[in-house]
Design goal:
With 171 residues, the chain is of the alpha/beta class. It is built from three helices and eight strands. The chain has one domain: 3-Layer(aba) Sandwich (Rossmann fold), CATH 3.40.50. 27% of the residues lie in helices and 29% in strands.
């Protein structure tokens, strides 16, 4: 019988903040000609990351940043309807950055990108705090806070919504 290991903190709140700031500069550099950009956060911690990324982009650039939440069941994305969270979201001819905390197999991200393809967006990009690179789907991140090589059995969790537990953990 093996003992359950305690999660190892791999990113502190300060480090996560620094990575989000760097990603905000990268988003701005790659899209500096845009007047407006849309940051779409995947429900839960992904939306918390999106809020922070949007705030940082607003702080460093003249771009108008619109924030939307992608609501769906992340455990069964194939069976879920994706709700954009806002009544009338105009995305046609806009740059959209879809944000989540961990990109592992890319299953959740693949399903979250599909509705944008039907909305006529000009450019679709992906931002993640941690990239694990265990792809089952051909999706990669344009903006990565931290790339981490792990075994398939290891678990990465990023917590942003609970200040007393904030960080990225490997178990």
């Amino acid at each position: 019988m093996s003992a359950i290991e305690e999660p190892q903190k791999i990113l502190t709140p300060l480090q996560i903040g620094q990575k989000i700031r760097r990603m905000a500069y990268e988003v701005y550099e790659r899209n500096f000609t845009e007047k407006e950009i849309v940051i779409a956060g995947i429900v839960g911690e992904g939306y918390e990351f999106a809020k922070r990324l949007a705030a940082e982009i607003s702080r460093i650039s003249p771009m108008e940043v619109r924030l939307i939440e992608l609501r769906f069941d992340v455990h069964a994305p194939k069976q879920s309807y994706i709700d954009f969270g806002n009544d009338e979201v105009v995305l046609e001819d806009h740059v959209v950055v879809v944000a989540d905390v961990v990109l592992n197999t890319a299953r959740t991200m693949t399903f979250s990108l599909q509705p944008f393809l039907q909305k006529g967006v000009r450019k679709l990009q992906v931002a993640v705090v941690v990239d694990r690179s265990h792809r089952l789907y051909p999706v990669s991140a344009d903006y990565v806070g931290y790339s981490l090589s792990t075994t398939i059995n290891e678990h990465v969790q990023v917590i942003l919504s609970k200040p007393d537990q904030e960080g990225a953990y490997l178990q």
